[in-house]
Amino acid sequence: MPKQPRSRLMKVVRASTLLAPVFLLTSCAKIPGFGYEEGLSSVNETTLPLWQGAWITAAVVGLFTLGLILWVAIFHRKKSAAFPKQTQYNIPIEVVYTLVPLLIVAVLFAYTARDQSRITTPASNTVMHDISVNGIQWSWQFTYPEAGSNVTVTGTPSQPPVLYVPVGERVRFTLTSSDVVHGFWIPAFMIQLQNLPGVTNHLEFTANKIGTYKGFCNILCGRDHSEMRFSVKVVTPAEYQSYLLELKAAQS
Length: 252
Description:
alpha+beta; 2 domains; five-stranded mixed β-sheet
């Protein structure tokens, strides 16, 4: 009889450990963005579900691990001075805790590779604009071929440049570097691609929401790396064309 309450408590702990992930996934109708807003760009539409899935996987693993820790702490405490029974190995458990992490990593890797391919595969038939992004120590140069071959906006650490992008229209970015490796990073859009000296990289995406977003270099590139910032201003197509005309007039 004295063991009955303990047995019931053990069942409750085990059930809670198994059901916690279910409650986590079904407690709310909408999965949070875990720091990111949904639908800001075409990249978000691909990357955000992967980001959410990774966090949910981590939460499930964490809760299951916490349940095991609590179960051991509650039901395997020292009860007497007797030396506990020693077990050399447990092959089924060792196989499980080897294969399960490998399976989790393999699934996450497969989804990552799939989404990376979707993001980096060019879609030339839908590209409407071209913009060149050149990294320099320690700022950015934005070139708009539609406004003229030599129309370039150059920023400085004290005056970060503004990158204009039309909402709802796909843009192809050509990424280069004049000196060292830089990282073209727009956190809100979940976008990052390196600017490499001697190498030309390409990135395509569509901005879906009007607004101003922060951009950074996220590759340590020298003394003023922390000042290598820029802003992305997403405007209407009409405002974008007006901006191109302003740039063209300023160069003439």
